[in-house]
Amino acid sequence: MIEEQPITERTLVLEPGTLWPKLKAQTQHALECKALHSIATEYEFVEQEGIRFLVRILSNLVWKDKAKKKQDEKTATSSKDFNPFLPYEQDLFVADLSDTHLCLLNKYNVVDHHLLIITRAFEEQDTWLTLQDFAAMWACLGEIDGLAFYNAGKIGGASQRHKHLQLVPLPLAPEGVNIQ
């Protein structure tokens, strides 16, 4: 079990006002060196019982099959599950957040500037969120107006076992969805 420690100013190492500029610069770098693989989607709004939802639809599923095959090959050659976060790709690194967390670009993003907030040490994706997870998330939300979420395990939609939260900037579409 993860030992909870009090959150202090010293725990967070992200300098205020630096995340968005770092995110934009690293996105440009990752695109130039082809580390970032943006996935083309189309979107539409669906309304049910008076609530408007944004639905994204993949334009092409070929990329997903290729990525899965590549991951399966890495697992087969190493005889253990592939973990893209240990070690992480330096070309996707955005910022250190704390002693326990850092930010990466989502390699296969469907939304521009999609961040992953990952634990430095391996933790299972289906574990409860900790105070350190929330502190890292709030450090990011203090810098970027966005939607943060956590897919708690495979049944929740997670594709990786290594614990990670995600943040996508608002608006989620050019005409936006009012989620206030």
Describe the structure.
This protein has 180 residues and is α+β, with helices and mostly antiparallel strands. The protein has a domain at 19-38 and 83-169: 2-Layer Sandwich (HIT family, subunit A), CATH 3.30.428.10. It contains 3 helices and 7 strands. The strands form 2 sheets. Strands 3-4-5-7-6 form a 5-stranded antiparallel beta sheet. Strands 1-2 form a two-stranded antiparallel ribbon. β1 (41-48) and β2 form a beta hairpin. The longest helix has 17 residues, at 62-78.
Q: What can be said about the biggest beta sheet? A: 5 strands, antiparallel
The total of helices stands at: 3
Radius of gyration: 17 Å
- CATH topology (level 3) name of the domain at 19-38 and 83-169: HIT family, subunit A
Tell me the name of the CATH class of the domain at 19-38 and 83-169. Alpha Beta
What's the pLDDT, averaged over the residues?
Answer: 87
CATH architecture heading of the domain at 19-38 and 83-169: 2-Layer Sandwich
CATH superfamily descriptor of the domain at 19-38 and 83-169:
HIT-like
User: What share of the residues does DSSP label as strand, in percent?
Assistant: 15-25%
Share of residues in helices: 10-25%
- How does the helix and strand content classify structurally? alpha+beta
What series of H and E elements makes up the topology?
Answer: HEEHEEEHEE
